[in-house]
UniProtKB/TrEMBL annotation:
InterPro entries, A to Z: Haem_peroxidase_animal (IPR019791), Haem_peroxidase_sf (IPR010255), Haem_peroxidase_sf_animal (IPR037120)
Pfam family, one: An_peroxidase
GO MF annotations, alphabetized: heme binding; peroxidase activity
GO process terms (BP): cellular process involved in reproduction in multicellular organism; response to oxidative stress
Top-level taxon: Eukaryota
Protein name: Peroxidase
Parts of the chain that traverse the membrane: none
Organism: Cryptotermes secundus
Keyword Thylakoid: no
Subcellular location: Secreted
GO cellular component, one term: extracellular region
Keywords in alphabetical order: Heme, Iron, Metal-binding, Oxidoreductase, Peroxidase, Secreted, Signal
Xref: PANTHER family: GH11385P, OXIDASE/PEROXIDASE
Length: 801
């Protein structure tokens, strides 16, 4: 309950979810003054005590219009039901807000007041120019060729993202102001204030038009092909899945203040330092997987970059980078701390960083996004990728980027030829986009700025660039009457279909487990068309998928990258720590083929609480003795994004919420639970990433119960919510059945064979180590490793859009 005072009248406001009786009015008007004061104090004390004892519960759901399956152990009802999907989150949200607003009786906030608040925040934001100018003068920014520079490359925002992010920042600050002014005074906690603020529209403020323009339903969707920015996929919701829109939420965010501050522990003031958690639970130990290759890890990253890109904030007025620690690793003086900073504390006794007197690890908060419903409310984060599996890491997410990657001749993507082989084109600003020492050093440009992060990722980008150009060249021979635009779009369409087929046919059964994937209806059809697409399924990427679940791959990476010869032997290797954002090694003689063979030969590490030291203390290292810790950064990002703790997600997925740490023993070992107990004070405090990584793998899946649930849910919507998914019929540009038959021959092994420099042999399933049932086959053997034929595309008179 909450207390609202009007003059000398106190209103008792019950806030329980199921409360249905009228409000009680306690009037003190007829009581003498002295007694009135005493009674008033007693009443307030009693009511506040009762409120704290009973707790104030607010049920909130995602602000995004979406239908989400409840993927739990009892999901048979979902799969077999005629209704198919639960109630829309948007409807649940509206009902919740209407009910809470009616019960609470909080003062109405009119449009004039909201407009005043927004103008006040805009004015205050303008005053930050002085502070940012001071930071620039003091050189408090990210320096090139440092670990923080590598960190910035991996999360660099585009100019358009920054423009949208500034509007979202104003909306968040205005929401916080509304919260402080209109509901915290009445005894409402953070979550309740967040729900109260979420009921307010911004349409009558200066933000309203800008939000409406970003989420406009009046976009021109007359094009024949998939839009480069992800728009126009759904007839009624044209901005679903579009670049620069917010992530979706499976669970309501948990912010300490209901709007933006990181969640608090059950007891105490703050959660344990992300670095303390990392050192407390992680061990660096070789733990190779028995059957899965590094291809599985690399494909996970490749499609993650297709679906997910979380940019960070920059200085609002100058666009300069933000640095949250001093260059020597100590904390900044308060006057030099930018509001976007959320640095990670490194303790004095840290087992590694204490040797170098590092106390502060840089972390800049993620760029905000406007809420799709154009309401005020808790902070949401932006996806700088499209939310579709559409090859955006190859082709870009804006027309400007896409055009910069094309030759505009015969449908080809731009390349640079070196030693007779095609490579990605040189980056426009190598010193900014790589951790290199000169503008002449190799640094590549692709659809995604993260292309250069490490050699195996560069290899994957290079092969798929070549695959596009190979297909475009063959289409040009088959259809000499096609112009450049048609050749480019048709080649792009086929490449995207190949990526989708490989993801759902080869990768997903290994990650989720074949039985679970089949149970969810994610098994692809072998012939004909699919009826999966649903207009009312929002494919937008969930924050928990992007920020936690897909990060499982980091524990499977190896610090030593093997270089394999044609006999699959290795006597050379690369160290990951020496090759972050320095991709020139792939141009060394035979290195490209050796790295490709390595992807198909070297065993991945097992998924779990074992991370290679190159990732937890050498990340983005250049010439220094240390780098950053990927796990600490990932934990901090989850808190920045307001992700509820692991216990909430395991309950969402069908497991009981643990009341004590021993409640985790249903999915974890005793030793793992002991580690969690040593760093966290309460089971509700455990971060989603750590809890998910702590679970043991289920059946033939790479994942544990909770991450399997989150990733399965997302991949279901990614397919069902995509009008242009390759096997969807009756669309303007659907494939024919003959063309589908060829698309279904796609394998990663065939792409390796067709696009590497000179690989002779490959196993049919590159995600699995070579064995008796997955033996080596000549690349020229198109029966052993099937090859897509483009003959069904001959004379297909397709007009360009």
């Amino acid at each position: 309950m909450a207390i609202l005072r009007q003059n000398s009248t106190y209103w008792v406001l019950p806030m329980k979810k199921d409360f249905k009786v009228p409000l009680h009015l306690l009037s003190l008007n007829n009581i003498p003054g002295g007694v009135k004061m005493a009674c008033g104090s007693v009443v307030l004390a009693v009511l506040l005590w009762t409120s704290l004892q009973s707790g104030i519960q607010f049920t909130m759901t995602s602000p995004i219009d979406i239908q989400v399956p409840i993927l739990s152990r009892n999901y048979d009802a979902y799969i077999n039901s005629s209704a198919g999907w639960p109630v829309l989150y948007q409807q649940q949200l509206k009902h919740s807000i209407q009910k809470r607003a009616k019960i609470s009786g909080l003062p109405h906030v009119d449009d004039d007041a909201l407009n005043t608040y927004v103008k006040f925040i805009e004015s205050n934001l303008g005053r930050e120019t002085r502070m940012e100018t001071s930071l620039i003068r003091s050189n408090t920014k990210v320096q090139q060729k440092t670990p923080q520079h590598g960190q910035l490359i991996a999360s660099s925002p585009s100019a358009e993202a920054l423009r949208h992010g500034k509007d979202a920042l104003i909306a968040t600050k205005a929401s916080l102001y509304i919260s402080h002014k209109h509901c915290q005074w009445y005894g409402l906690d953070g979550d309740e204030c967040g729900a109260f603020v979420m009921s307010m529209k911004m349409n009558r403020t200066s933000l309203g038009d800008r939000c409406a323009a970003q989420y406009s339903k009046n976009a021109d969707c007359s094009g024949r092909y998939r839009a480069i920015d992800g728009s126009c996929n759904h007839v009624n919701d044209k901005t679903w899945g579009m670049v620069h829109t917010s992530y979706l939420r499976l669970l309501a965010p948990q912010y300490a203040d209901g709007i933006q501050e990181p969640r608090k522990p059950v007891k105490g003031k703050s959660l344990p330092s992300a670095r303390l958690v990392s050192t407390g639970v992680i061990r660096d130990r070789d733990s190779a997987d028995n059957s899965r290759t590094m291809s599985l890890v690399q494909w996970t990253e490749f499609i993650e970059h297709d679906l997910v890109f979380t940019p960070v904030m920059k200085m609002v007025h100058s666009g300069n980078s933000i640095m949250c620690c001093r260059q020597d690793g100590s904390f900044l003086a308060p006057r030099y701390i930018h509001p976007a900073c959320m640095p990670i504390t490194v303790l004095n006794n840290d087992p590694f960083y204490s040797k170098y007197r590092q106390r502060c690890m840089n972390y800049v908060r993620s760029l905000r996004a406007m809420r799709p419903d154009c309401h005020f409310g808790p902070a949401e984060q932006m996806n700088q990728a499209t939310h579709y599996l559409d090859g955006s890491m190859i082709y870009g997410t804006t027309d400007e980027r896409a055009w910069s990657l094309r030759t505009f001749s015969n449908g080809q993507l731009s390349t640079e030829t070196k030693n007779g082989q095609e490579y990605l084109p040189q980056a426009d600003k190598p010193l900014q986009q790589c951790q290199v020492s000169s503008n002449t050093s190799a640094c590549y440009k692709s659809g995604d700025i993260r292309v250069n992060l490490h050699p195996q990722l560069v290899i994957m980008h290079t092969l798929w660039l070549r695959e596009h150009n190979r297909i475009a060249a063959k289409l040009a021979l088959l259809n000499p009457h096609w112009d450049d635009e048609t050749l480019y779009q048709e080649a792009r369409r086929i490449v995207i279909a190949e990526i989708q087929h490989i993801t759902y046919n080869e990768w997903l059964p290994l990650v989720l487990g074949s039985k679970y994937a089949k149970k969810l209806g994610l098994q692809l059809k072998k012939t004909g068309f699919s009826s999966d697409f649903a207009e009312d399924v929002n494919p937008s990427i969930s924050n928990s998928f992007a920020t936690a679940a897909m990060r499982f791959r980091m524990s499977m990476m190896a610090g030593t990258i093997g270089l394999f010869d044609e006999d699959r032997n290795t006597n050379k290797s690369l160290q990951l720590k020496d090759n972050f954002n320095q991709p020139a090694t792939i141009e060394e003689p035979e290195h490209l083929d050796s790295l490709v063979r390595g992807l198909a030969t070297q065993r991945s590490q097992k998924r779990g609480l074992y991370y290679d030291s190159d990732l937890i203390q050498m990340l983005y290292k250049t010439s220094g003795q240390f780098g950053m810790d990927i796990l600490s950064l990932d934990i901090q990002r989850g808190r920045d994004h307001g992700l509820p703790g692991y216990n909430h997600y395991r309950k969402h997925c069908g497991l009981p919420a643990a009341k004590s740490f021993n409640g985790f023993l249903d999915v974890m070992s005793k030793s793992t639970v002991a580690k969690l107990k040593s760093v966290y004070a309460h089971p509700d405090d455990v971060d989603l990433l750590i809890g998910g990584m702590s679970e043991h793998a289920i059946d033939d899946s790479v994942l544990g119960f909770t991450f399997r649930c989150i990733i399965g849910e997302q991949m279901l919507r990614t397919k069902k919510g995509d009008r242009f998914f390759y096997d969807v019929p009756n669309q303007q540009n659907s494939f024919t059945e003959a063309q589908l038959g060829e698309i279904r021959k796609s394998t990663l092994a065939r792409v390796f064979c067709d696009t590497a420099d000179d690989i002779k042999m490959m196993q049919p399933n590159a995600f699995i180590v070579p064995s008796g049932s997955n033996g080596m086959v000549s690349c020229s053997n198109t029966n052993g490793i099937k090859q897509l034929s483009l003959s069904p595309w001959k004379q297909a008179l397709v007009k360009s859009s």
